[in-house]
Specification:
358 residues; mainly alpha; two-stranded antiparallel sheet; 70% helix
């Protein structure tokens, strides 16, 4: 209905795909204790080198391989500095992001110094019969291949972490590294593997942006690496939660793109605003009395304002620049107010310093 139609659903799935790929790998890394602030840089490297590989070879598959390799190389630098040399993971990650932005911009200008190069976009995967379902058929079953691959990836990460012995070892690495080490599982090796996998998946997610659009733009990841980091936190370091968080952020991004073309703010926006308060109380799963009075007052104000605007439906519009900030504002809101004190791996971002570990 209105803004939330089949086109919005299809756009949500596309915009969620790079987040799902990047956050799936980041989930694996963080469960071992590695915080990849450089995820934005991994994705940007994947976006450029995926575009470059496709341009040079004419093959989308080769482009994706280029992107994965680029993400792994940047992740190896991250792993060497933060795992092997025990450098601060946040500082290293910021440096990786700056390096990726500068390197991709420089190489792009050197290689593509002429007119803007456009690539042919890959055809979507159409599912026989299912894509012909009225309404949602095109939105769900006629999407780029990355969309379906991302679903398989997050399912595989969940299975590995929760249903395999190796996944148990990875989780122990992030919770009790000394115990994992004593049990014969190398903490360094586990963290290296998880970081490299996170880099490869982030690179693949970045390649979706450039190959699917058929164009590379400097800095085109535009903060999606940070959204992927937020999705892991919002998902409480669980694969199903991470998937839902990515869909939420992708839906918000799709909505802001849609709202930029609207003459006035549609009714659905005010209804969503009115429902934020009840959603907050539902997600926190606590009795009303257990909430701070200021939190309850804020919830009540937001709900009342949203309800009043839904009833009156004022006819005005908001600038496109304001709508573009919506996914990031939503990220701040959900991290600050919705998740509360979340469980997190106990050694996240803390180096492990056992000199004899090989």
């Amino acid at each position: 209905m209105g803004v939330f139609d089949a086109f919005w659903l299809a756009t949500t799935l596309r915009l969620s795909t790079p987040l799902i790929l990047a956050s799936s790998g980041e989930l694996l890394a963080e469960r071992t204790g590695v915080l990849n602030i450089g995820l934005e840089g991994f994705m940007l490297a994947g976006a450029f080198f995926g575009f470059l590989g496709t341009y040079l070879s004419g093959s989308f598959l080769v482009g994706v391989v280029f992107a994965i390799v680029a993400g792994v190389i940047f992740a190896a630098a991250m792993a060497f500095l933060s795992i092997r040399l025990s450098a601060d993971q946040i500082v290293v990650g910021i440096g990786i992001n700056i390096l990726a932005l500068g390197l991709t911009s420089f190489v792009f200008r050197e290689v593509f110094s002429g007119p803007q190069v456009l690539l042919e976009r890959p055809a979507p995967w159409r599912w026989p019969l299912l894509s012909d379902i009225p309404g949602v058929g095109e939105a769900l079953f006629a999407q780029p291949g990355w969309v379906y691959v991302a679903g398989v990836v997050v399912l595989a990460v969940w299975f590995v972490l929760q249903r395999t012995t190796w996944g148990l070892s990875m989780r122990a690495t992030g919770e009790l590294p000394e115990a994992a080490d004593t049990a014969g599982s190398s903490v360094f090796r586990n963290r290296w593997i998880a970081t490299l996998v996170a880099g490869g998946l982030a690179g693949a997610g970045g390649s979706f942006l450039s190959i699917e659009l058929g164009v590379f733009i400097e800095g085109m990841t535009n903060g999606r690496g940070y959204l992927a980091l937020a999705a892991v936190i919002f998902g409480r370091w669980r694969a199903p939660g991470v998937l839902l968080a990515c869909l939420l952020f992708g839906g918000a991004d799709a909505m802001q793109l849609r709202l930029q073309a609207e003459a006035t703010v549609p009714l659905e926006v005010w209804l969503v605003l009115a429902l934020l308060g009840p959603a907050y109380l539902l997600i926190r799963r606590r009795s009303v009395r257990s909430h701070h009075p200021l939190a309850l007052a804020a919830v009540g104000c937001v709900t009342a304002i949203g309800g009043a605007l839904a009833v009156t439906q004022p006819q005005f519009t908001l600038p496109a620049q304001l709508w573009r900030t919506f996914p990031f504002v939503l990220t701040i809101v959900v991290l600050a107010g919705f998740i509360g004190r979340s469980w997190m791996p106990s050694t996240l971002a803390i180096p492990y310093n056992r000199e004899s570990d090989t």
